[in-house]
Amino acid sequence: MGYSSNIKLQYVISFMRALLPAYVIERLFWQAQGMTVQMMVLCGVIYSLTVILLDVPGGILADRIGRKPMIFLGYAFAAGEFIFTVFARSFGMFALAMVSAGIGDALYNGSQNALLYDSLLAEQKQDGFEKLLGNVNALDLAGSMIAMLFGGVLAAQLGFSLNYYISFVSMMIAAVLSLGLKEPPLVTKSESEVLGAVKQAKQALVLLRQKPVVLMLCVSGMVLGAALTQMDEFYQLILYGAELPVVFFGIVGAVLVASRIPGNLLAHKLKQRLRYRSVLNAIFVLNIAGYLALFVVRSVWAVIPIAVISFAAGITEPLVLGYLHHETDSSIRATVESFASLGLQILSMLVGLLFGWVSTQWSIFAGFLPLAVICIIWLVCSNFLARRNIA
Fold first, then answer.
1. What does the alpha-carbon distance between residue 107 and residue 376 come to, in Å, rounded to a whole number?
2. Nearest residue to 172 (alpha-carbon basis) of 78, 58, 105
3. Is 381 exposed, middle or buried (0-12, 13-18, 19+ CB in 10 A)?
4. Which of 142, 165, 324, 333 has the fewest CB atoms within 10 Å, i.e. the most exposed one?
């Protein structure tokens, strides 16, 4: 039985799960309901804690009982975020929305990439994983771009709530479509062949400890991802502070999303021509320059460094996840990626608290300075470890 249908279906699912116009005006909606930047950051912490608690158990369940049910449940809980938010009028309701989103992410984190990789592995095509992941991400970004283009117009003409209802429907369509995915044979082992949950988690940790290059790449992805999260979450407030009309938010957001597509499509070619470390070093330099520019350029021109950071982010995910999956056995594939996601959430939470505190004390622009400093510190440390043959 062929598993190429998984790839075709994942293209459609990725597009639908990204067709979420709610994110175009998310922070403005929250702000209109009385949420401050600090309160938004605290909700982000609640989201991160939810993922931290459930991410690894979700990955273990995906490796034990199958990836498809985890993907379906993940999308269903992710859809719940939009319903809770549209009726939210207090911090508690917004926090509940973030719990629903966190459960969703924890359940499908790792599961969808593990299913895709094993679908390729079943047909001996796993070397093309980076290209496939880049293509899937490109369609995901295309969906986001379309959502942003019409989301800003809808919000300006018909109010913010409609964007949330459309997002709920789109995510539920993705959930229903995921039921058509096929489990690759390496997932459906008999119970006697499957590792115990604790042993499975330990084996994933042993792999990361015994392969320092994999661990180094994962940490690099975590640092870049934690910083990127703050930019993705709060760039709307930069535009709002620059007095840009809401109707243009979608256009700017679409441009920023579009800037990630080339990176996703080029990642597999860069892997073939350059060393992983060389590409990552270049990505860190672009990020550092971008965050320093955001600290200095306190106007609508901030969209330029944001676009540069977005372009670099497009390369990062397929590059890091591709290396991770190539070095991981199928029996713990989702578990290992869940550990990587767990580290990202912990770091994102800590960086988010720092970003929120600095932004509240000074300005949203000042919050980007510590992001640049964090990237500089890890860039220096990772290269020092590499030269000492530690990673």
1. 33
2. 78
3. middle
4. 165
